[in-house]
Write a structure and sequence with these properties.
Elements: H1 2-20, H2 24-29, H3 35-63, H4 66-80, H5 90-104, H6 107-120, H7 128-150, H8 156-173, H9 187-191, H10 198-227, H11 232-243, H12 246-251, H13 253-260, H14 262-270, H15 272-282, H16 286-292, H17 294-314, H18 320-346, H19 352-374
């Protein structure tokens, strides 16, 4: 039954994300904000997460509050997000978005830590993908319906749906198993996690580069499709199709890891991202763009499943939540905040084609750095 609660949690979480996140850029644009203001609003979300997630990770590991922070984050976010509907002021929106980002930042890495702890106790750590794939299922279902129902008229519906999903997650969190780690771990050990672990340090630099590209695509894919004159249903279908390949990758992650090893499986998945950015630069037909976005799912399946397992293996068990927080804050925090800040500036003078050119260069660099990090030394992650 516990396994089912994790699956339900991920499904509901990404139903909310699938309805909410892809349309935030358009939501702010329709409030008549400037491109730079929209860029700031989109960038503050991952940046606030980057600042707060490592702190929440340390709190979780040191004080054994992994599950408690998930519950609090879900309930508080469900209330705060409603405030976005009732103001058009840039500065008020900036404050609201920053607070929401801080409050919700421990949710995803802490649930991953809980799931990995539960699986490890049963000797099935590599089966994490079988939990996480339900998030992709939820995302696909949400985006299929969101395009036609929400894009054309009332984007405020995305806020209400996201609020409801976060409240439901708060209730579900009561049924998740907690984890207990040694109370003897020291704050200084957590603070020195990066300085004392060169493989993790270099890996996160590469992940930040990849995060730059993902932050841009997560918020500007809808804008890109709008530039191609895609219909509302096609926009919803494209966002959904981009996530479909995640499902088989996460489902068969255990077998792929056993056959190829963590490193090779991870790097093969990442390698398709630069191809996607190049094709986005070239394509002018929205129907062709729809099929190209399937490459996104291959890479995301690798990042959000194989990468989570990889980081978990190279760090001590007692710093499980901190490790996941650092990984998530780099991939969904600092990287996207940098990318979205630059994207806001670029969009004042150009279109999304320039964004894909930036993604191509930074994505290649990030993949190279990650490969270098994974072969710095030999360990049991092969």
């Amino acid at each position: 039954m516990i396994r089912s609660w994790f699956k339900v949690f991920y499904t509901v979480e990404f139903i909310g994300v699938g309805v909410f996140m892809p349309y935030m850029a358009m939501f702010f644009i329709r409030k008549n904000l400037t491109s730079i203001e929209v860029g700031y609003l989109l960038a503050i979300t991952p940046f606030a997460g980057f600042i707060s997630q490592p702190f929440w990770g340390l709190i979780s590991d040191k004080l054994n509050l992994t599950k408690t922070l998930v519950t609090i984050g879900c309930f508080v976010t469900s209330v705060l997000v409603l405030a976005l509907i009732f103001t058009d002021s840039f500065w008020v929106l900036l404050l609201i978005v920053a607070i929401i980002s801080i409050v919700r930042s421990p949710i995803h890495p802490n649930v991953a830590a809980l799931a990995l702890s539960h699986l490890e106790s049963r000797g099935k750590q590599d089966e994490y993908g079988k939990f996480r794939l339900w998030g992709s299922v939820g995302f696909v279902l949400a985006t299929v319906f969101a395009g036609g129902l929400l894009f054309e008229d009332n984007l405020s519906l995305t806020i209400y749906i996201y609020s409801i999903s976060m409240f439901i997650l708060g209730v579900i969190s009561f049924f998740l198993p907690d984890r207990q780690v040694s109370s003897n771990i020291q704050w200084k050990d957590g603070l020195s996690l990066l300085s004392g672990h060169i493989e993790l340090r270099v890996l996160l630099i590469g992940i930040i580069c990849v995060g730059v590209t993902l932050g841009i695509t997560n918020q500007y894919l809808v804008v890109y499709l709008n530039e191609l004159d895609a219909s509302a249903w096609m926009i919803g279908a494209t966002v959904a199709i981009s996530a479909i390949p995640e499902i088989p990758i996460m489902s068969y992650a255990e077998k792929l890891i056993r056959k190829w090893g963590l490193r090779i499986t991870y790097l093969v998945g990442l390698s398709v991202l630069p191809l996607r950015w190049f094709l986005n630069m070239m394509i002018t037909d929205s129907l062709v763009a729809l099929y190209v976005q399937t490459l996104h799912g291959i890479a995301i399946g690798s990042l959000l499943c194989i990468g989570v397992i990889y980081v978990d293996r190279i760090l001590p068990v007692e710093w499980r939540a901190s490790g996941q927080a650092l990984y998530v804050s780099s991939l969904h925090g600092l990287g996207p905040s940098l990318g979205l800040f630059v994207a806001g500036l670029i969009m004042t003078v150009g279109n999304t084609r320039l964004l894909w050119a930036l993604c191509l260069v930074v994505g290649i660099l990030g993949t190279y750095i990650i490969r270098h990090a994974m072969y710095i030394k030999s360990n049991n992650t092969t």
